[in-house]
Design a protein that fits this description.
By secondary structure, the chain is mainly α. It contains 7 helices and 3 strands; from the N terminus they run H-H-H-E-H-H-E-E-H-H.
C-alpha cells in the first residue's frame, strides 16, 4: 500500500536581518565588505559636503597631523594609498594652502609635504570630528566590546597580509 503521508513545505523563509543581504549572512568577507562600503559612503559624503575634501585628502591630512613631514612614498605607505593618488591630492591641498610641498636637493626629486598653520588647524578639527563620529557609531558598544572589536579587526587585517588569494 502506498504511503499517504503528505510532505509539508515551510512557507516562511528563515528570519534573517534584511539590511546585510543573504551573502553577508554566510560570509564574513561579505559582511565586512558591506559594512566598509556603508561607512565609506557616509564618510565620503560627509567630508565632501562639510569640508570639500575627498577621503584621500582627509587621510593625507590625518597622517600629516601626526608627523612633521613626509615624502610621497612615506605618505602613501602611512595612509595606505597609491602614490599617484597621493601626488594628485597633494597638488589640490597645496592649492588650498593646507599643506606645503618642498623639493629637496639631497634626495633627488624627493618632495616633502607638511601641514601649513591653516592645514594644522583644519586637521585638528577633522580629528576631533572623526572621533565624535566614531563615538556615535559605537555608542551601543560597551568599552570592552569596543576594544575587543578593534582587536579583532586588527587581527583580521593582519591575517589578510598572509592570505594567498590564488588558491
Amino acid at each position: 500500500m502506498p504511503s499517504t503521508k503528505q510532505l509539508t513545505v515551510n512557507d516562511a523563509p528563515p528570519k534573517r536581518p534584511q539590511h546585510y543581504g543573504i551573502l553577508a549572512q554566510e560570509h564574513v568577507a561579505m559582511l565586512v565588505s558591506n559594512i566598509g562600503a556603508r561607512l565609506l559612503r557616509g564618510t565620503t559624503a560627509y567630508y565632501r559636503s562639510a569640508f570639500d575634501l575627498s577621503l584621500t585628502e582627509w587621510r593625507i591630512l590625518m597622517v600629516l597631523n601626526s608627523t612633521q613631514s613626509l615624502n610621497v612614498g612615506e605618505l602613501s605607505g602611512a595612509a595606505d594609498l597609491d602614490k599617484a593618488a597621493v601626488s594628485r591630492s597633494l597638488v589640490l591641498l597645496e592649492e588650498r594652502k593646507l599643506i606645503s610641498v618642498e623639493q629637496t636637493r639631497t634626495r633627488g626629486r624627493a618632495a616633502f609635504a607638511k601641514l601649513t598653520a591653516e592645514g594644522r588647524n583644519l586637521s585638528e578639527k577633522l580629528l576631533e570630528i572623526s572621533r565624535e563620529r566614531e563615538t556615535r557609531l559605537l555608542q551601543s558598544f560597551s568599552p570592552a566590546d569596543r576594544e575587543h572589536l578593534k582587536a579583532l579587526l586588527q587581527q583580521l587585517s593582519q591575517a589578510l597580509a598572509g592570505v594567498d588569494w590564488d588558491r
